[in-house]
Queue: 2 jobs
Job 1
Amino acid sequence: MFSSPTPLRAALLAQILGGIAAAVIIQLAYPQLFTVALAGAALQGVCAALIGHWLGAPKWWLPIHCLFMPAVVLASRLNIDSNWYLAALLLLLLIFWRTDQSRVPLYLSNAATARALKTMLPAAPCLVIDLGCAHGGLLRRLARARPDCRFVGIEHAPLPWLWAKLASLTLPNLQIRYGDFWRQNLASFDVVYAFLSPVPMPRLMEKALAEMRPGTLLVSNSFAVPAVTAERVVELADRRATRLHCYRM
Ligand SMILES: C[S@@+](CC[C@H](N)C(=O)[O-])C[C@H]1O[C@@H](n2cnc3c(N)ncnc32)[C@H](O)[C@@H]1O
């Protein structure tokens, strides 16, 4: 269930079924518990976690299921204006956008990765794209290091995109675009960089094979393409032991 493209729906289903299961258990075993909201919420959480587990949720979902409804009950006692919840939701949405659909969370390439990537760029002036560039930090490092090359970043999360766009204004060889990288044709790029997640890798390789020119390079930070052998894997001596999977088209 959770390997489907909509893990959020599966989580919602687990929460709803957990609520029904908890209500049935309380009704049958101890109806007075309906008046103790936190205890009912705790039971709902346990039921939701068990159902989530049964639906195939990864382990890290289970504490979320357990704690979600008790947190709702406790938060409702704090008398916080509901507009703050709306504001928090909007802020998270503007930063992370539809992670539930893209299945690509937000985390950033570090300086060691930028240094390694710089050594992989062709000696001649070239065109490089970062698919899902977030706040554009990696591209700014590269754009400063290689003023003879042009760099493009594409991002669909509004706040990271805005940050990247504003921070790129002083770098003439860096262009930040707003949008969905799946709609970006890759034919003109000499190097395509991606730091995504395991989920989109097969689709990304399909797209790269269909659009990138022979001899150009696809570099994937951390996530290998299943069943495709990389030309080489560069292992960095950084804290997270970054591996850059390099695929020559
Ligand atoms: C793991 S972060 C990597 C950020 C940056 N490339 C780096 O290495 O520092 C992935 C980024 O891809 C963005 N993203 C995911 N799917 C996208 C899509 N279809 N189009 C544009 N951006 C996308 C996310 O919003 C996120 O900012």
Job 2
Amino acid sequence: MSSSTHEESFDVAVVGAGIVGLAHAWMAARRGLRVVVFERSPRAIGASIRNFGMIWPIGQPAGEPFLVALRSRAFWLELAEAAGLWLNPCGSIHLARHADELAVLDEFCSVSAAGDYSVRMLTRDEVLQRAPAANPDGLLGGMWSETELCVNSRDVIARLSCWLSEMFGVEFRFGSLVTSVEPGGVTTSAGQSVVCERTVICSGSDLQTLFPSVLAESGLKLCKLQMMKTGPQPDDWRIGPHLAGGLTLRHYLAFAGCPSHAALRQRFVVEKPELDRFGIHVMASQNNSGEVILGDSHEYDDEMTPFDSSEIESLMLRELRELIVLRDWQIVERWHGVYAKHPERLILEAEPQPGVHIAVGPGGAGMTLSFGLADRHWTRWLGE
Ligand SMILES: Cc1cc2nc3c(=O)[nH]c(=O)nc-3n(C[C@H](O)[C@H](O)[C@H](O)COP(=O)(O)OP(=O)(O)OC[C@H]3O[C@@H](n4cnc5c(N)ncnc54)[C@H](O)[C@@H]3O)c2cc1C
């Protein structure tokens, strides 16, 4: 792309103002680079504002994924302090209601004693002390992990862009769809062009606008998740840490190596096959307004419809009511989100043209991993 005198010039153009784009913008700006961010909507309304707000290192397998999550966690703590964002270092408890769930958690704790996980088993009474929302009926115990954080993703995504502007002079072009990216610059659908040394494409679940063939060939899959939220719980009542249960042990790879995992998986297949039709596992987080965010289901690619299903909602609520007790179960919001996920990698990172980077597809862990991944990317791209 040729530069003309009226075109603005930046070191970096980022496409997409979701968490992945904001993370790459922040990590570039803290290295002293001049950054512009393009977002097609008047404000970011993709997966990054539709999640639980869980920073969830415990779900990441030991080794590099978990270390990236911990690095991200450190950035979240730094950001919350610097930008005055609400962040609750609430930790998490996986509740055990069946012998095989207790066994998996026990095995995970034993193995992880040698690693970096900060976990320990809790008795039933200890769980109930820490987690007022844990359902005491049928509860056997649980696993406490101290690394999980809670943020209000709707606030964070809106305020992070303001903070990046104020602190680092990052420029935001909302309502600007980028339609063309070439080495040296980007162009929007309105014909606006900027010149830049590097472009980072963080376009989330839009696999069709920029470099569609690269994205199609990468193996990325799209996944749709249904979610719900209660109103604020009465009397400022808090649920305690993030809560998950046996179903979640099947979902995250961290637990896959535990010897009792196969038996647990098989029990759910036999006892509750209806959940696997919709990839349901259930979790709960509570934001700074006291609202409890509940989910979720997983429907991939061809299974996805634009419509939300009341059957999925009923199944999720059935499982949640077994796991937790809330003071007020009234659902005040329902929505779904779609993310892209790479089948093997933490994120798809590609450089289809010199200085043009793609960072797409952290799946269900974008809030957990993005800062650490973006920091690692910039270290590599700049040869630090
Ligand atoms: C329901 C749900 C619950 C989740 N829960 C959690 C959780 O608790 N913890 C966790 O770690 N992760 C969670 N995730 C995953 C996490 O939310 C995602 O991994 C993450 O938000 C992806 O961020 P992103 O920036 O890639 O995508 P998005 O947030 O979708 O942002 C992409 C942005 O790019 C813009 N864009 C696309 N193309 C263009 C273009 N050509 N020009 C300009 N702009 C463009 C879009 O408008 C969009 O705003 C959840 C996801 C969902 C859907």
